[in-house]
Amino acid sequence: MSNTDKKDVFSIFAEMEKYGHEQIIFNYDKATGLKSIIAIHDTTLGPALGGCRMWNYESEQDALRDALRLSRGMTYKCAVSNAMHGGGKTVIIGDPKKDKSDELFQSLGSYIETLKGRYYTGTDVGTVGMDFVSAKKQTNYVVGLPEEYGGSGNSAIITAYGVWRGMKATAKEAFGTDSLNGLTVAVQGLGKVGHNLVKYLIDEGANLIVTDISEENVHRVKEEFRQVKTVKPEEIFSVECDIFSPNALGAVINDQTIPQLKCKAICGAANNVLAENRHGDLLHEKGILYAPDYVANAGGLIQVADELQGYNKDRAFKNASLIYDILGQIFEISKNENIPTYKAADVLVETKIEKIGRVQSKFTGR
Known about the structure:
- This protein is of the alpha/beta class.
- 45% of the residues lie in helices and 14% in strands.
- Strands 1, 2, 3, 4, 5 and 6 form a six-stranded mixed β-sheet that branches. Strands 9-8-7-10-11-12 form a six-stranded parallel β-sheet, with helices on both faces.
- Helix 6 (156-175) crosses helix 7, helix 6 packs across helix 11 and helix 6 (156-175) runs parallel beside helix 13.
């Protein structure tokens, strides 16, 4: 093997060491065709929690990278939202439109059960609540079930609520008041979360410019809220607005879009908004306030974590409302240390994990 070939080899243990992962489990079931990877990142705060994504990955390496990246992100999201859980993620290699079956998710459930509570999972991209009704036949370590099956149901509403609270905190930092009345918000993405977010913003008197790649989604919002303005998807980045709110795809803040932005702040529900960390540095340099995505969109995580205590809607929404205060802390760290907000969020999380880790290392009796 040449030196060039050696450099291209993907080392699982090197990746685990680099990002601090504890455990990776590869699961294969010949009978159902299940091919899945479970990544557990960090259980300092408690058992790992993170959804199950089903995707037709181009390679097994791509699937593994996704599991590693997403599980680490869940550790940070759990910590920042004060959920006493670590981060984990499951990926299933397969086409969610063709390869699903009750038996396949039962098989996944049986593998989740072998972890005996080290990891809880639920819905993510490519999976729905009913998939975990199947998984629950083999394990109790699942969350996010439909309400009629004992779960907390649709998390889009609380996610939108959390983004709205986060946007108010962002407005307070950027404009000196947390009122969104009269501000112009550009909303990218009108799916389940984006649609609910629009309702919160309209109720507060914000002016909205909206878009979605789905004409059906745009039409539905326009029918319900005639006062909103619509633009083509590629035009949303350059509209004059106070706050840009990405609620669809990730990596939308990148080298191509940053020069187009005409906003003072960014806050939305999309995951992995920054294409690269350096784009967070660029926003900081340009004076555009960025509400870190894993903080702003933590409402759904807060809801499913609450299920593990016996779901209480009022308690879950109360905890989601605290996204406002958490972002306030992050903005304060950013100012005091003169660092971009995405770094400030990581500082807050890593400090919390270290402190709680020390607390939980004490013997408190049995």
